[in-house]
Amino acid sequence: MNKITQLFNIQYPIIQAGMIWASGWRLASAVSNAGGLGLIGAGSMYPEVLREHIQKCKAATDKPFGVNVPMLYPSIQEIMDIIVEEGVKIVFTSAGNPKTWTAFLKEKGITVVHVVSSVKFAMKAQEAGVDAVVAEGFEAGGHNGREETTTFTLIPMVKEKLQIPLIAAGGIATGRGMLAAMVLGADGVQVGSRFVATPEASSHEKFKQAVVQAQDGDTHLTLKELAPVRLIKNKFYNDVVALYATSPTPDDLKNLLGRARAKKGMFEGDLDEGELEIGQIAGLINDIKPAAQVVKDMMAEFEAAKTEVTSL
Q1: Mean pLDDT across the stretch 301-311?
Q2: Which among 69, 143, 54 is positioned nearest to 101, based on CA atoms?
Q3: pLDDT score recorded for residue 74
Q4: 275 and 288 share a domain?
Q5: How many Cα atoms occupy the beta-carbon half-sphere of 94 within 13 Å?
Q6: Would you say the pTM of this structure is higher than 0.90?
Q7: How many degrees, rounded to 5, is the angle at CA 181 between CA 167 and CA 145?
Q8: Which of 70, 82, 93, 278 could form a disulfide with 141 if both were Cys (CB 3.0 to 4.6 A apart)?
Q9: CB contact at 8 A, 151 and 178
Q10: Computed over its alpha carbons, how large is the radius of gyration of the chain?
Q11: CATH number at residue 139
Q12: Is 182 found in the same domain as 140?
């Protein structure tokens, strides 16, 4: 029995990442209905919007789903209260100290998973009492660790020290990638970028097309002084590069970034001035297909790859 399918009571050890501006109730419920674990990304939602998404997700699936909460959130108490009130059973926390909320959530009978980018933080999450850890490599889209450790090296290093279930993230969009991660020691995988290129993702159609068109080398990790983020190279990215040439202060970078830059790009479809967050694996994503098909294709490829590997 797989530790991750057991922990969440799901069919396949595939978790859809809670991504800002992409992971609303439609995507989460579609993935859960297909046998994976769908996550609502609270990072781009006001508290009342999150409540609405949770309620719609409950109506759209009778399967387990969860909420991803970046702990940098200003109204975090309100978010956590809504999660408890609405009876959400699974919470993935990220971007913060797992000690802060783990005990509170566990007391309410909620399964807690924390996202990390290093062995050190994986250990801290385990000490804080989380049920599982997502170890996310440098390949991942969006906000990322400063360590630049790739998934291929991070997973076995975390596995060596960790006692609780381990979920691999960063650069996984196929059944082969899933098998590779599990051979390295992961119990399951978290998939982000591949689920952006689905009809159910709430992101803008133009952004989805940009993901499909992206090739090897079209994304880059930048803005490390603020919070490292992986972006598609576009006009805004070039503006960042030009600013770096002048040895900017963090305030200069903040001024350029401004407000709602990610919303502008991913949700409103401004491909020039927006922040287009996606993983390196975008170079392998060549179509927009339903979330259920993504899950089905990944599992079919996973099984086929397993058979191939035994003949090596």
Answers
A1: 95
A2: 69
A3: 82
A4: no
A5: 26
A6: yes
A7: 60
A8: 278
A9: no
A10: 18
A11: 3.20.20.70
A12: yes
Q: Domain check: are 180 and 253 in the same one? A: no
**Contact predicate 220/144, CB 8 Å:** no
CB 231 within 8 Å of CB 217: no
Give the pLDDT confidence of 252-302 residue by residue, as tens digits.
999 999 989 999 999 999 999 999 999 999 999 999 999 999 999 999 999
Structural domain that includes position 276: 206-281
Tell me the CA distances in angstroms from 10 to 14, 35, 113, 187, 295, one per residue in order: 9, 6, 15, 13, 12
Burial class (CB in 10 A: 0-12, 13-18, 19+), 187: buried
d(CA 197, CA 269): 14
Residue 50 half-sphere exposure toward CB, CA atoms < 13 A: 29
Write down the mean pLDDT value for the chain: 96
Structure tokens at 29: 């419920």
Q: Does residue 256 sit in the same domain as residue 113?
A: no
Same domain, 253 and 302: no
Nearest of 206, 212, 157 to residue 186 by alpha carbon: 157
Count up the domains in the chain and report the number.
2
Identify whether residues 33 and 149 lie together within a single domain.
Answer: yes
End-to-end CA distance of the chain: 25
Q: How many Å separate Cα 235 from the centre of its chain?
A: 25
